Amino acid sequence: MSRDNPNQSTRTQPRHAGVIHATHLSGKEAKAPNAAGKSWVLITGASSGFGEEFARRYAAQGHALVLVARRLDRLQTLAEALRQQHGAEVVVEQVDLSDIAAVVRLHERLRDRGIAIDILVNNAGHGLQGPFIDSKLDAALAMVQLDIASMTAVTHVFAQDMRTRRRGKILLVASLLAYQGVENFAVYAAAKAYVLRFGEALHREFKREGITVTTLCPGVSDTGFAQAAQMKITPMLKPLLMKPALVVEAGIEALRSGRMSVVPGFANKFLMAFTWATPRWLHQAMMSKAMNG
């Protein structure tokens, strides 16, 4: 129900996957940009879907960007487009975020380059549809590792810097499924529930540190995520499909406004009202029908 996808496969990456790439039109690795005075946005899962749209929006606003994902070719293509279209300063980082040590090394590299992240968009994630007991255990655990452990690690290391500066913004991308358990989405829905509750807690906890934390809970969106998650788009879901641009716009505005969380789209807001107003057995049965057909 959210975000980036194919760059979040569970295959082991080579040890050099965390090397920084700051490519320009020549295609050669460039020296680190001058970070002084710039407002930097770090976006995980930036190679497609919501992550790519966040990059385009923030580049258009004049921010410098750190784009993080596993698919280097997609990141480099996006970075070149943003440089040409908006004159944006872009650093490309090919990182396997499921490796917590790689998250720490990413933070250290950026710190050594004098890049202080002002806005963190924690967008990377992985999903899978299907009966839990029929799924491979490794796939389920990989989802937990990326959607929960890695997201927590990224938030922790960059929030520490924000606390020191007494300012910063963090956007966590969860899902509409965070609000209820859904048949054939057991691990994914549970992982997104963690993201939502984590974000709600940090919203209050970090406020006193000068840091805004907002959680974005999109419904089904036209990002390619459904295909990567082997998810069926049922007839009930088709009318609910949202364009990534609208979801991203809602997330950016909610973060700017300091909101705790946001569910974008009128239809999704109606589903939330239905969830709150009906017994659990009823709205879970309805959601199961909508998601599985």
Protein architecture, described:
With 293 residues, the protein is an alpha/beta fold. The protein has a single domain (6-292), classed as Rossmann fold, CATH 3.40.50.720. It is 46% helix and 13% strand. It contains 9 helices and 8 strands. The protein has an 8-stranded mixed beta sheet, sandwiched between helices.
Q: Which fold does the CATH topology refer to?
A: Rossmann fold
Secondary-structure element pattern, one letter each: EEHEHEHEHEHEHHEHH
Number of strands: 8
Helix content: 40-55%
Strand coverage percent: 5-15%
Q: Which second-level CATH architecture applies?
A: 3-Layer(aba) Sandwich
Number of domain modules: 1
N→C terminal distance: 15 Å
Assign an overall shape: globular
pLDDT below 50 for ≥5 consecutive residues: which ranges?
Answer: 2-34
Can you list the strand order of the major beta sheet?
A: 1-4-3-2-5-6-7-8
Question: Descriptors for this entry?
Answer:
8-stranded mixed β-sheet, 13% strand, 293 residues, Rossmann fold, disordered N terminus, globular, alpha/beta
Secondary structure elements and their pairing?
Blueprint: E1 20-21, E2 40-44, H1 49-60, E3 64-69, H2 72-86, E4 90-94, H3 100-112, E5 117-122, H4 137-165, E6 168-173, H5 186-207, E7 211-216, H6 225-228, H7 244-257, E8 261-262, H8 266-277, H9 280-292
Parallel strand pairs: 2-3, 2-5, 3-4, 5-6, 6-7, 7-8
Antiparallel strand pairs: 1-4
Helix pairs in contact: 1-2, 1-7, 3-4, 4-5
